[in-house]
Amino acid sequence: MLSYVWLYSLACAAGGALALAQAPATAPLPDPYKLMQTALANEKKLADEQERYECRVTSDGAELDKSGKVKKETVEVKEQFYVNGVQVERTISKNGKDLTPDQTRKEDERVMKETVKYSNKATAAKESAKQDQQAQDILTAMMLTNGRRQFANGRSALLYDIVPNPKFQPKNMTQRFAAVLQGTMALDEQSGEMVDLNVHSVKDLKIAGGVVATLHKGFWLHVHNQPQPDGVWLNDLSEGTGDARALLFIHPYFRFKEVTDNCHLYTTSASQVGQAKTVK
User: Fold this and answer.
1) For the residues 9-14, what does the mean pLDDT come to?
2) Residues with Cβ < 8 Å from 242, sequence gap 6 or more?
3) Among the listed residues 214, 205, 213, 160, the one whose alpha carbon sits nearest the alpha carbon of residue 184
4) For 140-155, what is each residue's pLDDT tens digit?
5) CB neighbours of 129 closer than 8 A, spacing ≥ 6?
6) Count of CB atoms within 10 A of residue 74's CB?
7) Is the pLDDT of residue 250 over 80?
8) Lowest model confidence (mean pLDDT) among 34-43, 229-238, 239-248, 269-278
């Protein structure tokens, strides 16, 4: 399916524990773009905080036929953690069955390869910069209108309608996708973090005549985030459905849902006991 990381990247993390005081219901609404820029800037400071979290992700993906019937469904349970701010996932079961010893070995090798790769801070920073640029591309392609303030669970959220920016001329694939999306976005007023994103495509989009990518009208994406007890924001739900194809993806009709839960903090420490010895 089309990767939704370019939209999920809007769900960057920030220290909600340092929240500002609640604004009155009648207070003027802040500039939503400045709020999101603050959240994007805070993301770069939060790599250490994210690395203290490990979560469980349950992923349910299905290939559909043109009538919407399921042709193939895959349910995976994964462990999710962060390395220098880059998300890494390790599959532990598929379709209700634990991985075989051989599958486990291959998965461990893949995860170790990614972990070593992003343990290099320069490599991790390059990946994070790529995601930040995707988020910036999206922001420039959309307009947030009809702002209103809502209160839930003791926090104020700013809800906006998303419409394409009529004055914007998209220059890359991310921007072209964002330019055909409409829906709603809710931002946490205290931190600027995205709480909820619910969008759908309002017209067909073909790139390079459909050879590079195709997104049909009605594509739907929903992303939700929530703060942890220490104020770190993490994604807890991503779901969507539609008719889309990108490059070599040959099953355009799909449905997916990812639920992230059971997040817990952990710490690790190491110390050297005795004098180090050289091993040949």
Assistant:
1) 36
2) 201, 215, 216, 218, 219, 220, 253, 254
3) 160
4) 788 888 999 988 778 8
5) none
6) 12
7) no
8) 269-278
DSSP β-ladder status, 253-265 and 70-83? unpaired
CA-to-CA separations, 271 to 83, 134, 230, 274, in angstroms, rounded: 21, 40, 27, 10
**Alpha-carbon gap, residue 91 to 256, rounded angstroms:** 16
| Pair of tokens at residue 86 | 């880059």
Whole-number mean pLDDT of the chain?
Answer: 79
Choice between 138 and 181, residue whose per-residue pLDDT is larger: 181
Closest CA to 185 of 202, 172, 165, 200: 200
Residue 90 predicted with pLDDT over 80: yes
According to the 3-state scheme, what is the secondary structure of the chain? CCCCHHHHCCCCCCCHHHCCCCCCCCCCCCCHHHHHHHHHHHHCCCHHHHCCEEEEEEEEEEEECCCCCEEEEEEEEEEEEEECCEEEEEEEEECCEECCHHHHHHHHHHHHHHHHHHHCHHHHHHHHHHHHHHHHHHHHHEEEEEEEEEEECCEEEEEEEEEECCCCCCCCHHHHHHCCEEEEEEEECCCCCEEEEEEEECCCEEEHHHCCEEECCCCEEEEEEEECCCCCEEEEEEEEEEEEEECCCCCCEEEEEEEEEEEEECCCCCCCCCCCCCCC
The whole-number pLDDT of residue 132 equals 79
